[in-house]
Give the backbone structure.
Amino acid sequence: MVNELTFEDLLKWKKQGVNFQLIDVREEEEHEAFNIGGVLIPLADIINKRNQLKIELPIIFYCKRGIRSQIAIQKLHRFYPKGNFYNLKSGIGIGKKE
């Protein structure tokens, strides 16, 4: 089971000053075209670049539709079974013009 946050929850966390890390697991060209301020670690690199994660914080992963971010969390749970990971529900694709 993967914990999920809505975009509204993310905005609430920001407003409340919750300290968290935001990770974008999309590809570089997607990130450059539209991003919400997350650190870019593409899904294919998530295991090799896991040292960039701030494991002591809640970490919110996102992608376009919420699928790749969910996969990233599942992969990382093998290394960090107690990781405080959240998937951005439905991703950020809703607000982006195709």
Notes: Strands lie at 4-5, 21-24, 39-40, 59-62, 85-88. Residues 4-93 form a domain with the Oxidized Rhodanese; domain 1 fold (CATH 3.40.250.10). DSSP finds three helices and five strands in the chain.
